Amino acid sequence: MHALRIYEAEARSILSATTGFIAAAGFTHSLTPARNCTYGCTYCYVPTLGIYGGLKPDDWRNWGQFSTFKSNAASLLRRELRPQQVIYCSPLVDPYQPAEADARRMPAILEALAEHPPRAFTLQTRGPLILRDLDALVALAARTILRVSFSITTDREEIRRRYEPHCAPLADRWDTVRALNRAGIETYATLAPLLPCDPEALIGLAIGATTGDIIGDPLHTRVSKPRGATTREAALKISHASGFEAWHEPGFQDALVARMAQYARAAGRCFVTGTEGFSRLARVGCFAARS
Ligand code: SF4
Question: Ligand 1 center to residue 94 CA distance, Å?
């Protein structure tokens, strides 16, 4: 585990109106509990956004080396929550990043959400630490549409160590997906970004661990997306040094996605990418209170 520096700062607001890809998927707001993510994934798109989302130059130059938590997140949330909001947490940080183990901001945030439930709330994470808050998640799921989108990027542990060395081992992540599902939390396996893998083995694992549609996306490339967030240079260097350049090429990526979709279809399941895939996490209209 790398050394983590944790800071705190008061924020002026906690919910941001969405734009672009997140808005197109159906989310009305995003919730970002901290600036900079101590997972520090080599491919992370966030620091390539520059100052968007309140990031400061030190954040994108030293991505993953520290995190600044919003000290007043829960009290701001109590003021800003509204019943019709469809909230994504978070486009800019993993809410269960390693620093959250000490910072412990999510329990108060989940409590505020349960007190003033929005229409729907989706947690995007790759952190087994989420299980620390399982009771609070179960309580929140009784008050709103709660979804967890759990990121898993490959089926090969040596690839995981190369591209995301600070993330939990893959077996622990699948165990977490299964534990969330067993607890009744609507949990999706999100295979994104797709790192070098055995695509059939990876989607096979997702089919075995979940019951809903499987979401995925290849690595962002400048060829297919000339502007906005893209893959960090650190991952491009790893791919180049390892002979994995094809995983960044649109033609290879299309074939990869087609293979995975075909495998899912044959198993009676659906593999969805892009905005269509992401929109699975923002659907509303099917919630019935369980308490
Ligand atoms: S967990 Fe997500 S936000 Fe954090 S560094 Fe990795 S890709 Fe970026």
Answer: 6
